[in-house]
Structures are given as C-alpha cells and as structure tokens.
Amino acid sequence: MTQRKTNLDLVNECDNFPYPDIPFAQGLLSGSYFKFKLEGCIAVLGYVLPEVAEKLPASPEWERNNASLEFTFKPANTPSDPEEAVAHRTAVLARFLQSAREAKTFRVLNGWRNELYPVYGPGRELLFSMERSASALFGIVTYGVHMTAYTQTAEGMKLWTPRRAPTKQTYPNMMDNTVAGGLSTGEKPFECLVRESMEEASLPEDVVRNAQACGTMTYFYVRDKRAGGEVGLCQPECQYVYNLELPEGVVPRPGDNEAVDFQLLTVKEVQSAMAEGRFKPNCALLLVEFFVRHGIIRAEDEPDYLEIVSRLHRRLEFPMG
Amino acid sequence: MTQRKTNLDLVNECDNFPYPDIPFAQGLLSGSYFKFKLEGCIAVLGYVLPEVAEKLPASPEWERNNASLEFTFKPANTPSDPEEAVAHRTAVLARFLQSAREAKTFRVLNGWRNELYPVYGPGRELLFSMERSASALFGIVTYGVHMTAYTQTAEGMKLWTPRRAPTKQTYPNMMDNTVAGGLSTGEKPFECLVRESMEEASLPEDVVRNAQACGTMTYFYVRDKRAGGEVGLCQPECQYVYNLELPEGVVPRPGDNEAVDFQLLTVKEVQSAMAEGRFKPNCALLLVEFFVRHGIIRAEDEPDYLEIVSRLHRRLEFPMG
After folding, report:
1. Are residues A87 and A183 in the same domain?
2. Residues A299, B190: C-beta atoms closer than 8 Å
3. Residue B30 CB partners (closer than 8 Å, separation 6+)
4. CA distance A256 to chain B (A)
C-alpha cells in the first residue's frame, strides 16, 4: 500500500526543479546542467543535461564550454533580416535534429511529433522554432492550454475526467484534464483550445466559446521514467488555464486516440484519485489550481496553502513569449 | 496630462522590489539592505534599510554586522520552552519599539496601530509578534485579506468600489477594494474577512459566508511617499483573495472611518480609474488578478499577460506562515 499524496506532494512531483534563489539549489544547478544559449543573445534559453550536451557531435554549430557550463547554438551565415534569421535558425536546427533522430542519438526523439514549438528571446521576440519532441533536450519553456470542464448536478459540481489511452507514449492509462494540448509557433491559446477540444473531446466550437480564461499556471518539471526518453530532462512549462461549465446532457467523447473515455466525477472522487497518484503529474497540479480558485482547497484546511498557491505560478528564469 | 498606466505598469508599481534571481538585482539588494535575522534561526526574516539599522541604539539585543549585512535580534535570557520563547521575544521587541516610538526615532511608528503581526520561521512556526506599524522597518512578510464584491446587473458585472477617506494616514482619497484588512497573530483569514466586512462595509456575517476563497496574491512592495513614513521600507505582502457576489439590493456602506462611500462601477469604469492611477497600488493589483481570473484580461489582448500572471503570485524569499 502506498501512502496517500498530499496536495503539496502533488506540487512537488510536478514543480520539481530546484528554485534558483535557494543557495543549495544554485550549486546543484550549476553542477548539473549546461545553460542553453543562442549566439548573440544574452539570455539563457533552457537547461541541457550534460549527457545530452556531450552526445552532440563536435560541429561549428554547437559550442560546449565546460568552464562556463554554456552550450551555445551558433548557426553559420545567419541573415541580418530578423524574420529571415528566425527561418534560418529554425532550418539549421531542424536538419540537425533530423540527423540526430535518424542516428537514434536521443531516445526522446523517438516520440517525434512534426510540430514546431517557439523559443523566445528577452524582448519576447521569436528566436527560432524547434521540433516539439526535442524541447526537453534543450530545456526550453513550452506552452500549452489546459481546460477543466465541469457540470453542476444535484450532487454538486462534477468534473469531466478522461483516462489516457494505454497506447499513449507518455503516462499511459493515467487520468487527465478534460482538454489539454501544446501551443505551436504562431498559434493563439484560445485557437489551440478550440482545436484540441474538438480533437480530444468532440466538443464543438460553439460550446467551447463559453470557456473562460482564468490565467496561467507555470512550473518546472524534471522528467522521470514515466515521461519516456532520457531521465532528468528539463521541462519548464506554461499552461493557459480555462474553465468550461457544461450544461447537463453535453458530454465530452474521445475524438482521437488520446483518451479511452470521459468520466463525470465528484470533487471527492477526483481528490481521491489525485491522492492515489492516478493523475498525470501536471494534470494533478492543474486540478489543485482549479480547487484553490474555487474555494475547495482553503487556507483553513490546507496547512501548505501559501506554498502551494505560490508554486502554481512559478516565475520561470527564461524569457517567455 | 499623465500617461495612462498599462496593467504591467500597475504590477510594476506594487511589485517593485528587484527579483533575487536577476544578477543585477542581487548586487542592488546586497548593497542596499540589511538581512533581518533572529539569533539561532537560519532564515532571513526581512530586509532592513541601512538608515533604519544605523538609527537603532547600540544594545546587546541588536547586532549589526556591516560586513555580512546582517541585522540580528538577540533577546537575552530567551526561555527554552517554545511558547515562552515566543512570548519573551515579543515582549522584548514591544518594549524596544515602544521606546523608539516615544523617542520618535522612526516616522513610520507615528502610525502606531496596537495590533500584533506574526513573524514565522522556516518550519512555519511562530517566532514572535511585532507591532503592525513596525513591520515595514524590518521588512517582514505581512498577511491580509482582500475581497472584491460584485453584482450582476443588466449592464453586466459591476464592482463595489470604496473611496478611502481623506483622513486616512496612508493613500488618502484613493480607490480601494471592497473589503481589505490585515491578519493579526492567531487570526484565521476567513475570520478576519468576516470582521473586516462588517467594520468597513457593514456587510453582515450571513452575507459574507457566501464569499469564495480564490487563492492568494503575493508581491514585494517598496514604500514610497504616499505610504507615509520612511521611503524605501520593504513590504513583502501576502493577501488571501476572496470574491463575493452580492444580489442586487444588497449595498455595502461605510461602517467605520475607512471609506467615504461605495460606488457600483462597471468593469470599464474600474479599468479607467486603474489606468488613471486612482487606486491604491495593491488594490489595483488585486483587481488585475480578479480580471485575469474572470477572463476580462486575456492573453489575446494583453501583451504582458504571462509576466503579469506570474508576478501576481511572486514567491517571497522569506519563511511564511
């Protein structure tokens, strides 16, 4: 029998990268990761595992500095026009990642997605885009949407909760948020929500238009075995959070191969499943945030309330879009 | 004519202490403030302005180390029993502050409140309590409640917005949140909300019981002239956030001398007053948070969305309760 997880345990499992303002974490950090940089840009864009940095072939496009622990992308012949520069960097990186994929250099690239994720600079300008499955190799910030759909019933609020398919590459069979998806380069959060709601939950656009934006959630996740691929990869994430109240009778149904079904669960049932560790870690975190925002988790009952709320909105140390 | 403030301007005015993970801020910080500590406790409890640390009389109870920039409270003869130790430290500090008040050493003590605020250690244990008006001298975290009451009308949501009395010591005549107050040692947030709702807005307990807890807001404020007292004092704050929907016809009315009246304003009217700088800085921040949570400020329209949301929930670098 495993111990039931507290809400703080659930936060710790998802937001599990050390905080840079804690002195011991600074040491841990500087000893364990390379800083990912782009030549000519002052900002650190992500953190790279030493085993990843060491596996990359020596080439003029990549500079590894073991003294400063910097790992710098230096694409040759970058055009001076900003838009052309973005396209050039993106193309050089794509060729490089494609060859790493073919050489099977990194396990995480087995989950190749053919989707481009944005990487931003300190002025929020797009620097380049990167194949989605490679984002954790470089530890860049990724962006997504998460929506909790719920229905008010005679028994109180119930939440629409999908179970992930056993065939999913990551976190098979675990419980999930009603709708979740990643933001590709150029995609707006609400657009992404509308697309994913139809794909994953068969919810039509006219229903999803009633969804309410509620802010963002940010956390810094270090991947473990359940995520697949190399262990220890960095995944700082920013999720745009939405709520959607569905009238009784409107039922989400799997629209693709992501979920096997949607269950309509009471708050107590959802909280039990969270405590049993049955939710995908970041989905449990999203539900903690939903419960805080709806007065279901309250300061009077939750001893870790202040720490939990602050950590749901971690300030990431990289530039963001 | 002054420039209209953006939402990020409003955040910057309230959360205006540098972030410790930004290298230049580290330099600024270590050059400008003493770390407030308690003998025997490893944690930094707050930041003290050098002009404050220098004004304190040389005494065995206070140790100022100009090399390490530490300013340490060392009450003699502290009992070993934890509860007695708390009472002893609180009493020694109270005597000290009372004499500083009589000597008029610090202007901020002219606003003496006769309320005790808690100071916590790294295990969330109460270390001692401190007269409210002295909290900014030591830069300790203070706790409060803020509630936005609103009414759904034919013209949409309207917010109940008080104007602070011209006689208030701090931020006279500025606009405020419906109900706000500070948490004394031992007081629970919801208790405090019920008490303040009656005192400030004449809202009875049976109405306030419908208020919904929505999380917390944290920010690190450096006091300017409008706050009264010494300029540059540190005020890291944690506010427990509540919403209350009032039915049409239930009207908040000034119950003490805090507010002159309550206006029922549309979202647009509130946003205009915010942009004109008419709200007390932390109340503007609370409204930004309310608008984010209600989908009124959205990523699609607000270029600073990600920074704003993250900064509404700043992780403070001190132990909290």
Report:
1. no
2. yes
3. B69
4. 27
How large is the average pLDDT for residues A76-87? 96
Q: How is residue A171 written in tokens?
A: 């976190």
Task: Supply B198's token pair.
Answer: 């009656």
* pLDDT tens, residue by residue, B246-281: 998 899 999 988 899 999 999 999 999 999 999 999
Which pLDDT belongs to residue B24?
47
Please report, in angstroms and rounded to a whole number, the separation of the first and last CA atoms in chain A: 43
B77 and B155 housed in the same domain? no
> In this complex, is the C-beta atom of B292 within 8 Å of any C-beta atom belonging to chain A?
yes
Answer yes or no: do A313 and B313 touch at CB < 8 A.
yes
Say yes or no for a CB contact (<8 Å) between A306 and B321.
Answer: yes
Q: Which of A130, A135, A36, A40 is nearest to A91 (CA)?
A: A130
CB contact under 8 A, A295 and B188: no
Q: How confident is the model at residue A3 (pLDDT cuts 50, 70, 90)?
A: confident
Residues A188 and A87 in one domain: no
**Chain B residues close to A20, C-beta within 8 Å:** 21
Concatenating the DSSP letter of every residue in A211-247 gives -EEEEEEEEEEE--GGG-SSTT-EEEEEEEEEEEEPP
Question: Residue A71 in contact with residue A48, Cβ under 8 Å?
Answer: yes
Last residue of a domain, one of A138, A162, A186: A138
- Where is the domain boundary, B138, B160, B181? B138
Quote the domain boundaries for residue B127.
33-138
Same domain, A294 and A159: yes
The reply to whether A113 and A192 lie within a common domain is no
What CA–CA distance (Å, rounded) separates B282 from A1? 47
d(CA B166, CA B260): 8
Instruction: Compute the distance between CA of residue A17 and CA of residue A235 in angstroms, rounded to an integer.
Output: 9
Tell me the chain B residues in contact with residue A316 when contact means C-beta distances shorter than 8 Å: 310
- ∠ CA B42-B46-B52 to the nearest 5 degrees? 120
Query: How many domains is chain A partitioned into structurally?
Result: 2
Q: Which of B124, B212, B315 sits opposite A295 (nearest CB)?
A: B212
ipTM confidence? 0.92
Cβ–Cβ below 8 Å for A310 and B189: no
Judged by a CB distance cut-off of 8 A, whether residue A188 touches chain B is yes
Whether residue B49 sits in one domain with residue B173: no
Angle subtended at Cα B65 by Cα B61 and Cα B66, rounded to the nearest 5 degrees = 140
* pLDDT, tens only, B99-148: 999 999 999 999 999 999 999 999 999 999 999 999 999 999 999 999 99
CA distances to A64, A82, A151, A159, A177 from A245, rounded to whole Å, are 50, 43, 6, 9, 14
